[in-house]
Amino acid sequence: MLPLVLQMTSPLATLELQYFKAVSLYRRRSYEPCVGVCNALLQAGHENHVQMFASSAKEEQEELQPQQPEQQAEHLQRIGPRQRRRRDQEGGNLNSSIMPTWLMESVWQLKMRALTQRVYLDDLEVDEADAGVNEDVEFERIATAARPGSSIKTAFQPRPSTSQRRAPSSVAHSSDGRLNSARPGSALSRPGSALGNRPASRCGTASRVRATSAAAFNVGDATAKLYQASRLNPTIYAERETIVKALFQFLYYHEADVQKAYSLCQAVTDVPRQRAAQGSLATPTNPARSDWWWQQQLGRCLLALHYPRRAEPALQQSLAAFPHPDTYLLLSRLYQRLRQAERALLLIGKALEQQPFDVTFRLEQARIHEAMSQQEDALQLYRLAAKLQPINVEALASIAVGYFYDNNPEMALMYYRRILSLGVHSVELYCNIALCCLYGGQIDLVLPCFQRALLMATQPEQKADVWYNLSFVAVTSGDFSLAKRCLQLCLTSDARDGAALNNLAVLAAHSGDIMGAKSYLNAAKDVLPEASEVVANLHYMDLHYKL
Amino acid sequence: MSLFNVCSWWTTQCGDITGDYDVASLLCARFGLETQEKDYLIVGSQSGQLSIYYPHANAFDATDLLLETQLAAPILGLYAGKFSGNVRNENLNQLAVLQPNAIVIYNVQTISGLAEYGAQLKLQLQAEHKFQRVAFSMCQGHFGQVKGREFFCVVHLDGTLTFYEQDGISYECRFPGQRSLPAPVVYCERTDSFFRFSATWHLQCFSYQDLSHSLVTKSSYQPIWSQCIGEGILDMRVVQLKETCSYIMILGERNFISLDDNGKFNFILKLDYAPKCFHSFVVGYYWEPGARLITAIVSDTAKLHIYEEANIIWAAQWQQPAPVAIQRSNVQSLAGSIVTLSATGQLTVGYLGAQPYQFQVQPLNQEELSFAQAHKQLQQLEDEIKESVDIRDMDALNQQAADQVRFSFSIQPEVCDDLDTLLLDVPADVAVKELPSAKGLLKLKMKAELAELQLVVQTPSGVRCSQDSLSLVDVPAGSSREIPLDFYMAELLHVHTTRVEVFVSFLSTRGIPRVLQQSAYLPLSMFYRSCQPQKAAGIKLTYTITSKHVPPKLNTFFREFLEPDSEAHALGLQLLCPGLEKLSEVITVVAAKNSTRLRIQSDHVETFAMILERIVETTLQLDSAAGLLKMHKKKPKRGVRNRCVERIIAAPFIPIQPILHRADVHHETQQNIRKQTEQLEVLWQQFKSLQRELQEQSESEPKETLTMQIEANYDHLILEGDKLVEIRRDEQRQRGDLNCAVALAKWIIYALNLEERVVNVVSSVLSVPVEDWTELSWEESMAPGIDMLHHFGPLMRSKSTSTHGLLDGNSTKDTFDYGRFRRHFATLFDRIVRLATSSSDEPTSQQQPAAMEQPAEAAQTAQQTDEIGNMERMLGGDKPTAAARAAKPNLSSSLEAVEDAEEYDEEDLRDTGYRKDYGPAVASDQQPGEQQTKAKRSEWVNEDFELPTTEELFSDLGIWW
C-alpha cells in the first residue's frame, strides 16, 4: 500500500489520516488491507510507548472507574521490539509523532472488528454440530484447567500406537478472503447416496474452520499479542462498554472461544448488580447494560456450550425485551435441540404473525418441518420462500432435492439449472446436476458435469464425493470394474468413506471375492458402526458365506 | 427467471485508478446552473482528484467531463447544498469538499465552451473552514428549521461534532467518554434532531436544541431516546415517507434495520448475504399518498437487491465487481438511473434491465483425448514405474543407490571426556557420572539430484546421538555434507549393543524411493572400564575360535583395554552404566593358554551382550578380511551347517533361567502398568463427571462438598499419575535388561553348531531391541513366533507335517497365558542346546567333554546365585516354580535331566499324540542322556519340515480372513 504523499502540518494529522484510511477500508469490506494499516499504526504507537487503556479520567469526566493500569499492562502485553523498522522508510514523521491514547485504542478496536468480520460466519446458518464435538470442547476445557507443573501430562504421554486418527481438514476461502456465509453442504445436499446418514460434505464445524483460518492469518503479525484471548480478564473489560461488545464478538466469532465469551457475558451482566451492591448513586445504572443484546449473547453462548436448558430463560428474557430475529432463530434451534420441534414451530409462527413475508422465518419453518420429516409441509414452505425471494438458493435446492427423491429428476434438474444460472458454481451443484441427468436419461451431460465437478474439487472430501457418485454412473452403465475403480479413487481421497467401502464390498462380492468383500465390510463398520446397510450386509455375509 | 442484469448505460474510468474511493466519494447533485438541469456526477478520490461529469447520451464522451482538478489534500467527502447565505439565486447550490483538516466550499461556475468542446465548469472558492481534528464525515441540513440555507456539522474521527452555522460561527460538541469507531451522524429535518450511532451499538437521538444549548450550559448530552441496534453499522440515512413520519434506514453488518423517528422499530430484515452499501429513497412525494420506500442494497458478490420496505422486489447482478457507493440519480435522458462507483474509480450509470442474468460457465477446454498418444504415454509411465519398482535384483539396485548417494559413517575408536552435557541436554543424574562419549563422522555426497533425503541415526536405547535425524529437501546434484556426531549416554540403562546404524532414505526427483544403510560400532571403553578379573562367576560361556586367521588372544578383541603387545590372558571389565552403587557388574574374559578357547564369565546377564558381540563380530570380520571364506547371501539349503562355525563356535549352553527371569520381571511390570492405567482411567472418568457436575450446578447451591471432592480426586489423580511415571521408568530399565538377555541368547545361538536354517529362523524370532506397544507387550508379540517354532519350525520333533490338532490354545482364549509362553520359551532354548550338543558331538568329540563340563556346572551355579540374588530384587509373588527350579539342580547332576522333567506341556503332548513315541524317553528321563539324545536325534530335528502355507496357518490359528 502506497503511503499518501501529504503536506500535513502536524504529524498527528498524518496518523489520523491513516486511521481514516483504515476505517474507509473497513467500510469497503477490505478487511485484510485494513488490518495491515492497523498493524502499522499499532506498531508506530508501540514504538512511542503509547499506553493503551490508560485511565483518562482527569482529562474528561469518564464514567468508568480507572482500571488499575498496572494490572492491565499485564493483560495487554507489549509487543516485542521489531527487527525491521519499516516505518522509517515510509516517513520519519510517524515515528516522531505522539499518538493519543484514544487513537491507539480505536485502532486496536478497529483491527479487532476487521479480524472478526473477516471470518464472520453466521452460527445460525451452520448445522448443528454433532455430539462428538461436545466431548471435544469439554476435554479441552479440562485439559487447560490442569494445574501448572503437574505431572499429568507426562503420565499420559502416548506411546506408539497403531491406530491412526484422522487429521482435521480446513476449508478454502472465497476469493475475497471472507468465508462463505451461505449454508454450505446442507442446502445442496447430494441425492443419490446409498446411505441416509452420510455426513454432509461440509467438513468440520464452523468454529473449527474459523479457528484455523483465523490462526493462519495471524502468522507473522507482531501485534498479534494484543489479541491474546487466553490472557484476557473478563471482569476488567466488562465495564468498558465502548469496546466490550466488539470484544465479545471477537472472542466468539474470531477466537471461537465460547467459554471465554460466555464469561465475558456473565461479567457484563454482573456489573449492574455489583454497582447496586456498592450503592454508588453517582452513576445511575445504565439500563442498556442488561439489555436484550447481552441476554441474547448469553443464550447464544450457552447454546453453543450445549446447555440448552440454561440458555432458554436468557433467550426468553431477551425476546421479551426486544423481538430480534436472531433471538427467534436461536430459540427455535434450542427447542429443536431439546426435541420440542412443536414449540419451535409455534415460536416461529408467532414471529411470522408480525412479518408474514420474512423469508428467514419461512426457511426456518421449513427446516423444522423437514427435521420432523414432514416433507410435504417443508416443500410447501420452501416453495413459498422461493416465491417470496426467487433467488433463495436454499429454497430452490431443497425443492430440487424433493423432486429428485420423488423420482422426478427432470424437475430437479430444472431447479438445479436455475441455481446454476444464479451464479452458484460449486462442486456439489455440478455433482447434483450430473446425477439428475443420469437418472433423467440425459446421458450426454453426465460425464461433462462430473468432469467440471472434478476440476473444481479442491477438498479431499469433495473429490471423494464426486468419485463416489461417479461410481453410480458406472454401476448404471453396468461397468462394474469402472465402478470399482471409481470407488477406489474415492477411498484414496477419503479413506474413511464408509459408503464407498460398503459399495466396494458389494461389488467385490459380486465378482466372487468373498474375502475382499468381508474385509471391506469390516472396514466400513469401523467407520460407520451404525449404518444399517453395513450391518445388514455383514449379517448376510455371515449367514451365507461360511468361512 | 429471478435474477436480472444491471445494464450499463454510461461508464467511465475516473482519473485516479490507484483505488481510493469510498462511499462518500460519489455525489449526484444539481447546482442550479441552468433551467433544465439534470444531475451532475461528482467524484472525489482520497488522493485528492476531483472530477465532475454530466452524461449527455448513453456512452461516455469527452464533453461529458466538465471538470477535473487535483486538490492538495485528500477528499474525504463531497456534499452539495446552500451553504452560503448571500446568494441571489435560490436554486444555486454550493459544493462542499471535506478534507482531513478543512472543509472547503466552492461556487460552481459554467464557462461556455467554444466550438464542440462543450461547456466547462470552474470552481470558485467561497469559504474555507479549518479545524484541528481530522474529519470523518459531514452532516448537513436546515438545522433549527432555518429556511433558505443549510448548516452543516463535521463529524470527527474521535466522535466530536463541530457545528458551522451562520458564517464564521462554529462550536464543538464532544460526547463524554465514548470513543468508538467513527460512524456517520444524520439529521432529521422533521423532528430537528440528530441520530448518532454510539460505541455501545445504540442509536441515539439528540435534539438540535440540546446540542446547541449544551455548549452554553455544559450540561451532559442526554439523548431523547436510545435503541440498541446490536451490531456495527455500515451506513445510515433518513428518509421522509409521510408528513408525520421519517424513517431512519440503517444498513447493519448483518441486518437491514428501519426505525421511525420516534425510535420505534419498523422492521429488522436478516440479510443472507454480506452487504456493502445501500441507498434508500422515496418514490413519489411524502405529502402525497402512495409514496413508496425503496431501498437498494449492494451485496459483496455484486448483486443488487431492491426492497420495498422489507420485501424484495427485484434482484440483479453486475458483471463487474461490487461497487462501493451507489446513488439513484436523474441524469440527462435517463431518469431514475443507478449511479455506482467502484473502489477502483469505475463510474457507471446503469439501469435495471429486463434481460435475465445468465451465468456464463467457462468452457471446459479439455483436449480431445488421442487414444494412441495416451496409450503411448501410459506405456511410458508404466515402464518407468516398473523400472523403479523392479526388485528382482536387489544388489544392483542397492549398488545404484549407493552410487547416487555416497555416504560413509565411522566412529572413532577412542573415547573422549569433553562432552558438553549442558548443550546436549544430558539429564543431571547421567551427567554427574561423567561417562565417556564417542565421536563419529558422517559424510554424505549426493551424486544425483534428489527430491528428498532423510537420514536417521539409530542408537541403542540409553545412548543418544547429538543429531539423530536430518531431512533435506530438493537436494541439488553434487552437494555434500559432513556431519560430526557425538554419542553419549543419556539414560542409565543397560545397553545391549554397541552397534549404531545409519539409514539414508531418499526419493529421487521422479519419486523413486531408495534406502541405504551402514553401521559402525561404538568403542567398548564407552561402556566398560578394565578391572581385576574375577576368578569365579555365575555364568560361564565358552567360545572356540576355529578360524586360522584370528589369533585367539585377548589383544585381538579388546584393543581398547590392553597394550598393543600385551600377552594378558585374563581381562576384567566393569560396566560403567548404570553404575549402581551397591553392585559392580564385572565380566571376565579369559583366553586359554594352549587352546583357541575363550571363556567369558560374569554373574550378570547384562554384561555379556556387548562383549559377545565384539568377539563374534571381530572374528568374522578378521576372517573375511583374510578373504578366504565368504558369507553367501543365498538362501541356505537344507542340511547345511551354520557357516559361522567354521570360524567361531560357541559351547552349547544358554543361561536360560536368568534370561527367563528378565522376562518375568518385564512381564510383571507390564501387568502393573496396565493395572495402573486402568485405575487412572477410573479416576479420570470420576474427574470428568465431577467437573461436569460443577459446570451444571446452579449458582445458588452450595459448592463446598463438590469442591472438596474435586480437590481430593485431583490429588489422587496426580498421585497415581506420578506412580505411573515411576513404573514407566522401571519398565524402561527392565526393557534394557531384557534386551541384554535376549541379545545374549542370540549371540550364543548365532555361533552354535546347528543347521544354518535353524540359526536363521531362531535369530529372526529373537529380535532385539524388544518393543512394547500400547496394545501389545513384548511377550504377547513374541508368543506367536515362539509358538510357530514350537509347532512348525525346524525344531519340531515330529516328522509329520500334518498340522492337525496343533491348534494353539492361546488363540481361542482372550487372555494371554504368560505361563505357557514362558514354558515354550524355555523349551525352545533347551531344544536348541540339545540339538547343538548332539550335533557338535561328531565333529568335536574330543573337545566336547571339556566344553560340556563347564556349562553344566556353570548352569548350576548360575542358577543358584543368580536366582537367589534376583529373588531379593523381585517383588515377591508368583515365583514358586522359579524357586523350585532353582533348587532342582541339586538333585541332578545334569542340565538335561533337570529340564526334561518339565519340558513339555501335557496339553501339547496329548494333542500331538506324541506321548506314545516319546513315552520311553519320558520314562527314562532321569538318565542323563548323551546316548539317548544321540539315538533320538532324528526326533529332535524335524528334518524335512515345511512351513505351512499362509492359508493353512491362518485357518489353523483361527485368524479369520
Automatic annotation (TrEMBL), chain A:
Keywords annotated in UniProt: TPR repeat
TPR repeat residue intervals: 325-358
Gene Ontology BP, a term: non-motile cilium assembly
CDD domains to which the protein is assigned, alphabetical: TTC8_N (cd21341)
Classification via Pfam families: TPR_8
Biased composition (Polar residues): 151-173
Region (Disordered) residue spans: 54-96, 150-203
Highest taxon of the lineage: Eukaryota
Family matches, as Gene3D superfamilies: Tetratricopeptide repeat domain
Gene Ontology annotations for the cellular component aspect, listed alphabetically: BBSome; ciliary basal body; non-motile cilium
Lineage start: Eukaryota, Metazoa, Ecdysozoa, Arthropoda, Hexapoda
InterPro entries (alphabetical): BBS8, TPR-like_helical_dom_sf, TPR_rpt
Family matches, as SUPFAM superfamilies: TPR-like
Name of this protein: Tetratricopeptide repeat protein 8
UniProtKB/TrEMBL annotation, chain B:
Keywords: Coiled coil
Entry's Gene Ontology BP terms: cilium assembly
Domain PTHB1 N-terminal: 1-356
Domain PTHB1 GAE: 434-520
Residue ranges occupied by any PTHB1 platform domain in the UniProt entry: 523-622
Domain PTHB1 hairpin: 654-750
Record-linked InterPro entries: PHTB1_GAE_dom (IPR028074), PHTB1_N_dom (IPR028073), PTHB1 (IPR026511), PTHB1_CtH_dom (IPR055364), PTHB1_hp_dom (IPR055363), PTHB1_pf_dom (IPR055362)
Coiled coil: 364-391
Comp. bias regions, Low complexity: 846-865
Protein name: Protein PTHB1
Annotated source species: Drosophila rubida
